[in-house]
Amino acid sequence: MSEFGVYPDVTSLARAAAERFVTLAAEAIAARDQFVVALSGGSTPRATYELLATEEFATRTDWPRVHICWGDERNVSPNHPNSNTRMAREALLDNVPIIASHIHRIQGELPPEQAAAAYRAELEAVLGADRRFDLILLGMGTDGHTASLFPGTTALEERERAVVAVCVERLRAWRVTLTLPVFNAARHVLFLVSGVAKAKTLARIRAGQPLPASLVQPAEGELVWLVDRDAAGGA
Ligand code: 6PG
User: Fold this and answer.
1) Contact, 185 vs 138, CB < 8 A?
2) What are the residue ranges spanned by the domains of the chain?
3) Of the residues 10, 40, 69, 192, which should be mutated to test ligand 1's pocket, given the most ligand atoms within 8 Å of the CB?
4) From CA 55, how far away is CA 86, in angstroms rounded?
5) Are 40 and 137 in contact (CB under 8 A)?
6) Position 235 confidence tier, pLDDT thresholds 50, 70, 90
7) Residue 84 CB–ligand 1 contact under 6 Å
8) What CATH number does the domain located at 3-228 have?
9) CA 30 to ligand 1 centroid distance, Å
10) pLDDT tens-digit series, residues 19-74
11) How far apart are CA 9 and CA 101, in angstroms?
12) Which atom of ligand 1 is nearest to the CA of 44?
């Protein structure tokens, strides 16, 4: 782990994450004239997205130069309550001056293989051949999954394709997810983890056990874990 920050509660965790987002956006825009970020799903990042939409933070980001993608999506329509796209729209994207064509969602309403192929093509157009995101936000499940790379699934073995469809038997559901080659090519990866339910798994990851989330190790990028005190085991 290259950097590990512990915050007293979810509010200070969200603030630290939002600060990083704003700083990395400014750096990327200064260097390459755009900021290409993959958002994570789940519930943990919602507070960070809401903070980024406040006047205090939104005015510090050059939103028309931001491109938004996702790390994974569920097999649902964009209006479904479980849609990662819907969550990000409600918490952030509908409330900042982003350009509509800069929102590159995974089409969860399509058959999974078709959604994966469409998203692969979309990513190639946005990122080009090197597939380097400026920032990838990730969460972690209690089983150590991240994005939709679940333990024991074939998606973890993918070494070529940037995006795959994966059937998660435990959830009886299909997901579409970015793969390790993309996570590990990123310039910056930021994990956000909160809550006591994650403490045991986080301890295993810090001990170097090979759970999916510990396989995210950007080769030439920065890896940062921001967690709250509960997830850190009360430390
Ligand atoms: C998703 C995810 C997933 C999530 C973790 C943590 O679509 O569900 O991207 O990997 O980040 O399951 O989820 P919570 O933040 O809800 O605990």
Assistant:
1) no
2) 3-228
3) 40
4) 21
5) yes
6) low
7) yes
8) 3.40.50.1360
9) 31
10) 999 999 999 999 999 999 999 999 999 999 999 999 999 999 999 999 999 999 99
11) 35
12) 15
